[in-house]
């Protein structure tokens, strides 16, 4: 069972940048999809970005052009590079993985989350 550990959150001023990391305990090429989600206080968890095993990336419109998801296969780590941060980006950010077995059944895992606060 894969485990995910996020890091890199913190306090940043509006317009600033942060890079989040998500280290997996398995070869990330064996993971069909990895993603980032976030949850702001009083709100439901929402999808932010996805990186598929083949390398394709997808972003929510609210972060498109500002956030970039990438990976380091040798380190079994995915990243979320966040630029031009806004106060509304404040949330706990979670890493997520989906592994699909030979029967087509999906297994999901979540990291523990890392806090991102955008404030002056």
Description:
It contains no helices and eleven strands. It is mainly β and 120 residues long. Strands 2, 4, 5, 6, 9, 10 and 11 form a seven-stranded mixed sheet that branches. It has a four-stranded antiparallel sheet with strand order 1-3-8-7, with no helix packed on it. Strand 7 (67-72) and strand 8 form a beta hairpin.
Quick structural overview:
The protein is mostly beta strands and 120 residues long. 0% of the residues lie in helices and 52% in strands.
Question: Layout of helices and strands, plus pairs?
Answer:
Elements (H helix, E strand, L loop, with lengths): L3 E4 L2 E3 L5 E7 L8 E7 L6 E7 L4 E3 L7 E6 L4 E6 L8 E10 L5 E5 L3 E5 L2
Parallel strand pairs: 2-11
Antiparallel strand pairs: 1-3, 3-8, 4-5, 4-9, 5-6, 7-8, 9-10, 9-11
Order of helices and strands: EEEEEEEEEEE
The percent of residues in helical segments reads: under 10%
Quick check: average pLDDT?
Answer: 96
Sheet with most strands: 7 strands, mixed
Please state the oligomeric state of the protein chains shown: single chain
Total strand segments: 11
Number of helices: 0
SS strand fraction: over 45%
Low-confidence stretches: none
Rg over C-alpha atoms, rounded to the nearest angstrom: 14 Å
Distance, first to last CA: 40 Å
Q: Specify the overall morphology.
A: globular
SS-based structural class? mainly beta
